[in-house]
Amino acid sequence: MTNTMVTIDNLIKIVRSGGKIKTGVDIYNAKGMLLLEKTILVEKPRILEIIKENGIRSVMVNAASDGGLWDENGHRIQFSSDGSVDPAPPDTEMPPPPPSEHGPLSKDVGQRLQEIEAIKKQAAIAYQEAKDCIKKAMEQIKGNNGQFDIQAVEAQVDQLSRFLVSNGHPFAYLNKEIFSFDDYLFNHSINVCAIGTAVVHKFNTHFSTTIETFLSENRADIPGNMFQTKEKFDDGFRCYYPDELNDMSLGFFLYDIGKVMIPEPLLNKTGRLTPKEFDMIKRHSYEYGVNILEKNNVQSAILKNIVAYHHGPLFQKEEGCYPVDRKSSDIPLYVKICKLADIYDAMTSRRSYKEALNQISAVTEVFRKYVKKNTMLQFILHAFVKSIGIYPPGSIVFLKNRQMAYVLESKGPLILPFTDTSGNTLKHNADPVDLSSPDAEPLLAIDSDRSVRTTRDVYDLLPEFLRQTAMPV
To answer: Hey, which CATH number is domain 119-388, 3.90.226.10, 1.10.260.40, 1.10.3210.10, 1.20.810.10?
Structure first.
């Protein structure tokens, strides 16, 4: 049978059992977002789980386009029209995978590169949809005396947040605009939403688990008869619930909306701001932004707090914060997460008055500034570093052998060397290296004593295909 419809649950079961699948057809969601490319050999279930989360229950497998299903022994699996499994013919073993453009790769590294590429394609579409949405909203605010289609934004952020939660921080794999600051306000809103959503979910899981464990282990010391039983809690402790998390993602998306009321020349001014100019800039949050929400009858306290106080203090007596009538203890934790996301993305983005920092330098600076300030801030920092990664995708590292490498993925990390030990660009493409592998060469370990301040500093050393990655989409 050339074309066979197979349920997504059956596909997940096959891959979880050690099998592999290739659809032979591109899989899109209802919005036209590419979820799985027809040529990708799926060996891990995560991509299939994302497809299921998008509401797709069955997938076409096209054998005429090299699609197929194989068990853990490499034998083809065939489905009858009623969905039952047919015995595999003896001569239908899985074909060898196509050669990698980077040369021979280990099975795990090759699969991870395929997954990264699939996520990048999905993320590029999701990013552009979100950018169109925030751009339209800000144009409406300018032309409609502050009013915009809040329902359209809510629908877009709901779709965006589900994509973000399923993939962590997928936009980290996209090209970073290090030489352009066009559309900065739109890009910045999306990036802060992506980073903030990843961090707040990580924080919620970690903090809630910590509190639940404490309550369980110290039950006898808690006043009140309700805790004297040794039975398990019916419901685990949750710091934030789903509706609150959804409002937070919406707030992260709209947090800087008040800047639409500030003239662009002032936002992009390269010289030092006068006191009067800085006062106008500060008013984008607690005055302009809040006024826009009120004009649109937004009642959510979470949204108002994020918009009004995302420049508030993260710890007592932190300097340069506003409005000045708020203490650190007055600032909700989710607003503090928004501020960290704002700081990090601003540091790693090019502006008219500064270059973009290498992501590793930005993570390090943020951590050093806020570490050991107070207990709750440590939970937030933990979630921030876990979400961003010590070595974020797109950052540049030095290796112990004096080579330089580009980080493809934080996990591992997975790196791609691009210079020789003398600092010259390699004349051939090196293979990606998983530094977590026990077979990794010790001299290829990251040299934490050396760092690249900005990606621009080494742009001329990057091979052409990595230059394209470092440039705007």
So the answer is: 1.10.3210.10
